[in-house]
Predict the 3D structure of the following.
Amino acid sequence: MPKDLHTDASFEHQDYTITRLPDADYEACRFLHCNFAGTDLSGINFTECEFDHCNLSSAKIIQTTFNDVKFISSKMLGLHFETANAFLFTVRFDGCTLDLSSFYQCRMKKTVFNNCSLQETDFTETILTEAVFSGCNLRDARFEQTVLEKADLRTAIHYSIDPEINKIHKAAFSYPAVLRLLDKYAITVS
C-alpha cells in the first residue's frame, strides 16, 4: 500500500512526542518549532524539506530518507545518521547543535555545516570531500579514516585531525588552528 504524500505543507509548533508524525512521504514541506525528540522517524521520506528551530534529539532515523534537506537552528543531539537511508542522502546544517551525533561511513560530499556545534561527533570513515565547516566547533569530534579532501575548515575551531590516518589532500585550514594537525606529536610551537 503506497504511503500518503504531503507536498508544500507547513507544520508549526507540533509536538510529535505526543502524537506521532504520520508515516508518509514529505516533499517541499517545512517543519517550524516542532518537537521530534526521542521519536521514531524510521522509514519516513523527506525530500526538499526544511526543519527550522526543531528538536530532533535522539530520534530514530532508521532507513529515513533525507534528500536535499535543510536543518536550521535545530537541536539534533545524538542522532545516528549512519542508520538513515544512504540513497540520495543530501543535507545542510545551519546553526544546529549536532553534539554526540554520528555520521559513521556516511557519504557527504559538498555538505555544508554552517555555525554548528559538532562536539564529540563521529566522522569515522565519512566521505566529506569538499565539505564546508564554517564557524563550527569540532571539540573532541572523531576523524578516523575520514576523507576530507578539498574540505574547508578555515573557520572551524577545536578540531584535532591526524593527517596520517585521514585523507586531507587540498583541504583548507587557517593559522593557528592548523597546528591542531600536530596534536598527536605533543610538540610545542613558538
User: Anything to note?
Assistant: The chain has a mean pLDDT of 94.
